């Protein structure tokens, strides 16, 4: 089992933040099938990975009420594509596969294992290629969450006292 497979398996259920990461892992895997992913910030900061690799990070921005039964979550995503080094020279990875996939899907992506459907705000998509060893991609995305209903006991029997006139 690869690092990506372990992450996807462990993120299939759980919290919404885990589901956000799971859907981003699937998105990156579809755009870059040959790349492994890192989602652990400590591993990434300590550079405990072997390029080429994609580092993924999400952070919640806000929640907005949509209706009595749902609310919308707005999150930010960061994807860092670390280039492989061949004979001492970095071999850049293009952001085009991801950009093209997002265009084809009209900036909407449905996770297969997580079931989470995200809408990517195309106006927030930013790509930085200013570092020699990586490309950084950032964007905001939204998804809807159903409000959990409290289970209540239903009344099935009614005692009606006679009404006197």
H/E series, N to C? HHEHEEEEHEEEE
Number of strands: 9
Structural class: alpha+beta
CA-based shape:
elongated
- Mind describing the biggest β-sheet? 7 strands, mixed
The pLDDT mean sits at 85
**Total helix count?**
4
Note the gap between the termini: 78 Å
Low-confidence stretches: 1-13
Tell me roughly what share of residues is in helical segments. 10-25%
Gyration radius over CA:
22 Å
Residue share in β-strands:
35-45%
Walk me through the structure.
The protein contains 4 helices and 9 strands, in the order H-H-E-H-E-E-E-E-H-E-E-E-E. It is α+β, with helices and mostly antiparallel strands. Strand 8 and strand 9 form a beta hairpin. The radius of gyration is 22 Å and the shape is elongated.
Short description:
By secondary structure, this protein is α+β, with helices and mostly antiparallel strands. It has 4 helices and 9 strands, in the order ααβαββββαββββ.
């Amino acid at each position: 089992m690869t690092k990506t497979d372990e992450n996807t398996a462990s993120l299939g259920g759980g919290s919404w933040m885990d589901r956000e990461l799971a859907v981003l892992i699937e998105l990156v895997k579809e755009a870059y099938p040959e790349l492994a992913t890192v989602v652990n910030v400590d591993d990434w900061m300590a550079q405990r990975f072997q390029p080429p690799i994609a580092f993924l990070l999400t952070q919640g921005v806000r929640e907005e009420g949509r209706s009595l039964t749902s609310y919308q979550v707005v999150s930010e995503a960061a994807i860092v594509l670390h280039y492989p080094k061949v004979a001492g020279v970095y071999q850049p990875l293009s952001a085009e596969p991801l950009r093209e996939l997002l265009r084809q899907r009209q900036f909407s992506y449905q996770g297969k294992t997580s079931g989470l459907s995200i809408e990517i705000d195309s106006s927030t998509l930013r790509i930085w290629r200013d570092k020699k060893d990586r490309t950084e991609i950032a964007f905001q995305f939204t998804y809807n969450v159903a409000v959990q209903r409290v289970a209540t006991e239903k009344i099935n029997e009614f005692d009606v006292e006679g009404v006197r006139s």
